[in-house]
Amino acid sequence: MFEPAGTETQQRQSIVDELERLDERKREILAAVCTEIDEKHADLIRSCSLLGHVYGRPLADGRRVCVFCRAGVLVFPELDLSSSAGYAADA
Ligand SMILES: [Zn+2]
Predict the structure, then answer these.
(1) How many CB atoms lie within 10 A of CB 71?
(2) Residue 89 lies in a domain
(3) How far is the CA of 19 from the centre of ligand 1 (A)?
(4) What is the pLDDT of residue 66?
(5) What secondary structure does DSSP assign to 37-85, as a single string?
(6) How far is the CA of 89 from the centre of ligand 1 (A)?
(7) 80 CA → ligand 1 middle, Å
(8) Reported confidence tier of residue 91, pLDDT bands at 50, 70, 90
(9) Å from CA of 9 to ligand 1 middle
(10) Who's near 58: CB < 8 A, 6+ residues apart?
(11) How far is the CA of 33 from the centre of ligand 1 (A)?
């Protein structure tokens, strides 16, 4: 357990410093986890692209997304085989 030492002012400063260290550590961990998840997400979308995205009807904002992976039309266009392997599905 964290036990600050010194005068009351020093103890309070130690608590503030420790809280700031914890916040920074939390940000670092969250950033690392988000990066890992983003990479896995991109890998799954890339795999879906290789099979050929299947786009549903346009969303309310006009965008079309794959009914399986929810990727937008322009994600990994170099791997998008939807023009030959996919088809427009009613989502
Ligand atoms: Zn897809």
Answers:
(1) 21
(2) no
(3) 43
(4) 93
(5) HHHHHHHHHHHHHHH---B-S--TTS--BBTTT--BTTSSGGG--TTTT
(6) 12
(7) 9
(8) very low
(9) 58
(10) 64
(11) 23
Domain that holds residue 48: 8-79
Mean pLDDT of 4-10: 91
- Whether residue 90 is contained in a domain is answered as no
Find the 72 Cα to ligand 1 centroid distance in Å. Answer: 8
Sorted by sequence, the CB contacts under 8 Å of residue 15 that are 6+ apart come out as: 2, 4
Find the 58 Cα to ligand 1 centroid distance in Å.
15
In this prediction, residue 82 carries a pLDDT of 55
In-domain check, residue 86: no
pLDDT of residue 80: 54
Measured in angstroms, how far is the CA atom of residue 59 from the centroid of ligand 1?
Answer: 15
Q: How many domains does the chain have?
A: 1
The answer to whether residue 14 is domain-embedded is: yes
Q: Model confidence over 60-78: pLDDT tens digits?
A: 988 899 999 999 886 455 5
